Amino acid sequence: MSGQAFRQFIVKVHGRCNLACTYCYLYAGPDRTWRSRPAAAAPEVLDRTATRIAEHARAHALTSLSLVLHGGEPLLAGAGTLARFTALVRDRVPAGCTVDAVVQTNATLLTARRLAVLADSGLRIGVSLDGGLAAHNARRVDHAGRPSWPAASRGALLLADRAPQAYAGVLTVVDVTLDPVETYESLLTLRPPALNLLLPHGNWSAPPPHWAGARHGEWLCAVFDRWWTAGRRETRIRLFEECVALLLGLPSATEALGLAPFDAVVVETDGSVEQVDSLKSAYDGAARTGLDVFRHAFDEALRHPAVAARQAGAAALADRCRACPLLRVCGGGHYAHRYRAGHGFRNPSVYCADLQRLIHHVAARLATDATPAVRDEVAS
Amino acid sequence: MHPVLREVVAELR
Prior knowledge:
The complex is a heterodimer.
Chain A: E1 8-12, H1 43-59, E2 64-70, H2 79-92, E3 98-105, H3 112-120, E4 123-128, H4 149-162, E5 167-173, H5 180-188, E6 194-198, H6 215-228, E7 236-237, H7 238-247, E8 264-267, E9 272-274, E10 288-292, H8 298-302, H9 305-310, H10 319-322, H11 327-330, H12 352-369, H13 372-379
Parallel strand pairs in A: 1-2, 1-8, 2-3, 3-4, 4-5, 5-6, 6-7
Antiparallel strand pairs in A: 8-9, 9-10
Helix pairs in contact in A: 1-2, 2-3, 6-12, 7-12
Chain B: H1 3-12
Domain Radical SAM core (chain A): 13-135
Keywords (chain A): Iron, Iron-sulfur, Metal-binding, S-adenosyl-L-methionine
InterPro entries (chain A): Aldolase_TIM, rSAM, rSAM_sf, rSAM_SPASM_FxsB, Sulphatase_maturase_rSAM
């Protein structure tokens, strides 16, 4: 029995990074699979991947799909390679299937010329930064330990100036040692149309850094209040807006909350078909499926037990989560954060207390700020 | 193996 079709295809066009962030779960975590893989995806891997994506789109009559060019640092593959591969996928999918293509970069390699190539090929560009000040990005260093901030900030501002229509936004890993409001306000100086705040990967066997009480939840609540009370929507913040959506009974578009079946799949530089990288923060080989684009259709990955578990919604959760009053909103949190060695993934999130704190906080603000007149009207 | 609430909700509709 295969599950819901994949609609998000994450392609590792390059498997190495020009940075060596001290907290990187991919290269400094327990997973070692990257070491045995080619640095860059060969042309035949990209060609075969485009064919497999088109095959899947046709088989499931997809009207849209998301193509995510990831790494490592995808720009190490060259902007031209990214543009050509995107064009190849668009050319091969059936007529009537739109391809939303985005590249996620550390921005250090962005130049005016590369930006033009990416934007002209219809690629959106997302940037990974941990704040809008040098101090916020002290852990994002190159392999010689030099700060990446000068090049990254230059690249991000170039993107905002030269290609605002292609600017997807900024992804930020939460660092609870930083001031939350200062972090948010500094990110606004980069003019992102959207932000997402990612809880650092960790689990019960390897808890996240500075994990205590609901410290991460408190940090997020402080940013929420600053964003919510700004008097205008300064930018979109995915985590918060998806929390509002879930509280209103809508489906969500995030891994961090909710019970929506997960429909993303990864192609590594050697053509291996894997689950998403975040699982690699749990144990070595956690994302492996044993499949590859040369021998297997993506439908075979849908039948993989671990993929099926991520599409099973509440059925894949711990008993405690299924009985929790916040189940529909929290959804057990991010799958990778539930891991416990010897017990698998059927546990509450290591961020359970943090998620409860955030969800209650957002719900309270939502209830308070829908004015009494409107609330009476709705009630009647 | 509330302007922000208004805009967010309008979009979510």
